[in-house]
């Protein structure tokens, strides 16, 4: 029964290497972010935390920016985030990203940004589908009453 319940909660999420400004802009419209990193060495926690901070800053800045005057700032911000991703890659970590559909029917327009960090030895192929526990994403999703 427990296995059946767990399988029913799995949501397929297409992931690909995080490499472009367009990907970051897609992630920025999400209401929450989930970083999956079960096999990451504890010695890399600072770099993972730095990536999370950059992604949060980018989400805020890209969401509130308006008009064409900020395009240079937008490019610089995205370049900084992607530099952080490249730093993790130099440490042997693959950074993949995808969008998970809204986990709650009460707020259908709120996808979750899904970031998967894995040692290169367990590298996932670009365009691969990762199964994510929707119940975990529901905990991250905002509540609007």
Which secondary structure elements does this structure contain, and how are they paired or packed?
Blueprint: H1 2-8, E1 10-14, E2 16-17, H2 21-28, E3 32-36, H3 45-64, H4 71-90, E4 93-100, E5 112-119, E6 129-133, H5 134-140
Parallel strand pairs: 3-5
Antiparallel strand pairs: 1-6, 2-4, 4-5
Summarize the structure.
43% of the residues lie in helices and 23% in strands. With 145 residues, it is an alpha+beta fold.
Model description:
This protein is α+β, with helices and mostly antiparallel strands. The chain has helices spanning 2-8, 21-28, 45-64, 71-90, 134-140; strands at residues 10-14, 16-17, 32-36, 93-100, 112-119, 129-133. The strands form 2 sheets. Strands 2-4-5-3 form a 4-stranded mixed beta sheet, with helices on one face. The protein has a two-stranded antiparallel ribbon with strand order 1-6. The model is unreliable at 1-5 (pLDDT under 50).
